[in-house]
Amino acid sequence: MPSRKFADGEVVMGRWPGGVLYYELQVTGYDDSSRVYTLKYEDGTELELKESEIRSQSSFKRRKSQSSSGSPSRRRTSKVQSRSPGRPAKGRRRSSSQGRDHKDDKEKTIQLVLFLFKLSENNTRRYNGEPDSTERNDMSLVSVERNLEPDLEIEHEREEKKTKEKIFKTTKTSSKTKELEFGGRIGTFALIFFLPATVFYLLLMCKQEDPSLMNFPPPLPALESLWETRVFGVFLLWFFLQALFYLLPIGKVVEGLPLSNGRRLHYRINGFYAFVLTAAAIGILLYFQFELHYLYDHFMQFAVSAAVFSMGLSIYLYIQSLKAPEEELAPSGNSGYLVYDFFTGHELNPRIGSFDLKYFCELRPGLIGWVVINLAMLLAEMKIHNQSMPSLSMVLVNGFQLLYVVDALWNEEAVLTTMDITHDGFGFMLAFGDLVWVPFVYSLQAYYLVGHPTAISWPAAAAFTVLNCVGYYIFRSANSQKNSFRRNPADPKLSYLKFIPTATGKGLLVTGWWGFVRHPNYLGDIIMALAWSLPCGFNHILPYFYVIYFICLLVHREARDEHHCKQKYGLAWERYCRRVPYRIFPYIY
């Protein structure tokens, strides 16, 4: 592969996107695979250009000197200019006062064009998702407009409109997924089979008297025993009951982050109300002596039903995504490869009318279902072991995980800024994760305790509770600090926070939790996951699968966040990494 032509820090002449004019820029980065340079204007605005769109200053000066020695008409028609966008091409001589007036107009036009470019760039970046590093947007349309006069020439306005259209056109055509995750086409194809197999393996192991790894593989049940139409009907009833709660006209309606076309989708925030209504419905069923431990008796069949439903939903989503406009496709699932796009999700926000399928599945059927399953396991433990009260271990697991779910539903609006909503499409990965992995793997500790009761002392229970509270405090306070700073960075309550400004007009927090490690919310997640597993004892590693999985998942997400932030913030992100060297675990990683 040929070596790069321009070095970092070198000042070059770059062509304006979609135009023919060249301007002075500084090289800040280079992508070896695509041979695309990241460059920065004098005011901090960044853009990406191919090598063919960049010229060295020396070659530019030679062209300029050659053109200046030619005829006047030749000078006027030269395409290479050293000035910024918006300069009108006029050949007549002006008086000194006219020249000054034109220069003022030209400078105003520069400001407007750079603002339009930055506005387009910021909208695209929000669309691509916000990693966990907190940002601040200091760009203000009002401050720009104050520096502009309404009496710009018609030629300037036409040039600005034309430039804006070119910028948005360039933004939309660059939404093709270039970097494939999860092992690319082969990796995603394997995961479509590996993920369901992992869920069924874990559930089968929990049913064994000795669920140690030495007993692999567990005895496989008969295929006909894995499916029951009645169970599938109960699952459908649960799914559509949550859909009904989602459609109720209760709770506030908020706007999501801007899409690539500048449009904002509306979301109704009523997840906590749905949880309360679900709790009331479960209470009524228990009052009429409905046997909730039916879930435990048919747990594997429910998992199979959920997996079948998620696969059917994924197929529907992919077929529907083929009709979606280009600007509505997910930046992470628009590779052009069927299997990869099917797995990661081809469309960003698939909807049936105003019903947002991805947002609904993110918090409702699986997350609330997780709590219901835990309750069913608690009742099953009492019945199987003839207990009048559930074990202390089961109470701790139920209580810790209930706190986590209630917190997520109470702070439902915060999910709108996560990468699941802003960046990832809705395909098999999220559909299976929301409807199968969350309710049936996250409830693994409660399911394990039914068949393998573990007695713990009150001091141990107190220690586990403290550990969970510490993890929850880190998780919640870090997320609250981030969300508050995003909503209103000028809040006097946040005046103690310091940040590093970036070329995007935003800032990276370097104090508070985000100055402690780069992803403090991940640290809180891992501590809580450990607290959930400890009540299961140390006889087997199976209850700690969730901790191991969670660490691997968060390390993967952290690596993805690092990659996105480095591309987005360039030199500012390098400064931030030097200021905050630890990623998740202080003094370790």
Distance between the termini: 34 Å
- Give the overall silhouette: globular
What percentage of residues falls in helices of 4 or more residues?
40-55%
Determine the oligomeric state from the structure: single chain
Secondary structure tally, helices: 21
The domain tally reads 3
Mean pLDDT: 79
**Strand order in the sheet with the most strands:** 4-3-2-1-5
What is the β-strand count?
A: 11
Transmembrane segments: 182-204, 231-250, 271-290, 302-319, 430-450, 456-475, 496-517, 537-556
GO cellular component, one term: nuclear inner membrane
Domain Tudor: 4-62
Pfam families: ERG4_ERG24, LBR_tudor
Structure description:
It is a single chain. By secondary structure, the protein is α+β, with helices and mostly antiparallel strands. The chain has three domains: 10-59, Roll (SH3 type barrels); 182-455, no CATH class; 456-588, no CATH class. Helix content is 54%, strand content 8%. The protein is built from 21 helices and eleven strands. The protein has helices at residues 57-68, 72-76, 96-127, 141-146, 154-173, 184-206, 229-247, 271-287, 294-297, 299-321, 338-344, 357-363, 365-384, 392-410, 419-422, 428-441, 444-451, 458-487, 520-533, 545-569, 571-579; strands at residues 11-15, 22-31, 36-40, 46-50, 54-56, 252-255, 266-269, 351-352, 355-356, 499-501, 507-509. Strands 4-3-2-1-5 form a five-stranded antiparallel β-sheet. The longest helix has 32 residues, at 96-127. The two termini are 34 Å apart.
